[in-house]
Amino acid sequence: MPSLAVNIDHIATLRQARQGTEPDPVTAAHMAELAGAQCIICHLREDRRHINDRDLALLRQTVQTRLNLEMAATDEMQRICLETMPDIICLVPEKREELTTEGGLDVASRIDEIRDFLAPIIAADIETSLFIDADPKQIEAAKATGSEYIEIHTGHYADAKGRAATKAELEKILTGIKQAQDIGLKVNLGHGLNYVNVMDFSQVPGINEYSIGHSIISRAAYVGIGQAVREMNELVRSFVS
Ligand code: PXP
């Protein structure tokens, strides 16, 4: 049965709108876990625009399920990762000017660099994942880095306009999932998934985890975080294994 990982960056974004202390992503993480989230995800960005170092330290102390640290492949993040010891990291591309992560990591052109970057993290017994597009050469490259997991970027599918374009993006993801599974990668999915479009994956076997933030936190504004997480959890846990 797939599991649900809840990204709490958006709670920190709201806090940073006033640069104060509320809402607190650490409290949100705890509530998400109480409602059934099996992993908490935060992205510590270079510019600290939402999650900051204090959040990460407290999340490491308080998260009882699993903590997934999304991060760029920089020396600073590698140091922080090894000091913090999350359960898993997900390497993402990062651009200062982007609103959110816009595309998958280009692993194919930097296989050796990423393999070397991951080596001390894997040696420290932290699991690793690479956020990549459903592109055959990126999937092959991800395998060559030694990463156990990939997270296939579902944002292009979520943003596609019209049935034909949506179907075409979905097909790419389904083909990518199969390719990754065939070469022994564990597959997570994430970005732009919501209570409606996630249903397109309900019959796709072998998905390890869904990484979802914006739609859950948006719904939480109406119904509370506990209910929002419970509703998404019920969906993904009803999907085929
Ligand atoms: N996965 C990755 C790698 C991301 O960068 C994000 C956005 O922070 C997500 C998943 C979650 O995306 P969303 O907030 O659209 O659900």
Q: How is this structure best described in words?
A:
The protein has ten helices and eight strands. The protein has helices spanning 9-18, 25-34, 53-62, 75-84, 111-123, 136-144, 155-159, 163-182, 214-223, 225-237, and strands at residues 3-7, 39-43, 67-71, 88-91, 127-132, 149-153, 186-190, 207-212. The protein has an eight-stranded parallel β-barrel with strand order 1-2-3-4-5-6-7-8, surrounded by seven helices. Helix 4 (75-84) links the parallel strand 3 and strand 4 (88-91). The longest helix has 20 residues, at 163-182. The termini are close together. The site of pyridoxine-5'-phosphate (PXP) has 19 residues, from strand 8 and helix 9.
Percentage of residues assigned to helices: 40-55%
CATH names the topology as TIM Barrel
List the bound ligands.
pyridoxine-5'-phosphate
Please state the second-level CATH architecture: Alpha-Beta Barrel
- The CATH class is identified as Alpha Beta
What is the assigned CATH homologous superfamily?
Aldolase class I
Mean pLDDT: 97
Count of individual helical segments = 10
* Strand order, largest beta sheet: 1-2-3-4-5-6-7-8
The rough form would be described as globular
Q: Which structural class is indicated by helix and strand composition?
A: alpha/beta
**Which regions contain 5 or more consecutive residues with pLDDT less than 50?**
none
Q: How many domains?
A: 1
Sheet with the most strands, sense and barrel status:
8 strands, parallel, barrel
**First-residue to last-residue Cα separation:** 4 Å
Q: Which series of helices and strands comes N to C?
A: EHHEHEHEHEHEHHEEHH
Number of strands: 8
* Cα gyration radius (Å): 17 Å
Strand percentage lies at 15-25%
Family: Belongs to the PNP synthase family.
EC number: 2.6.99.2
Subunit structure: Homooctamer; tetramer of dimers.
GO molecular function: pyridoxine 5'-phosphate synthase activity
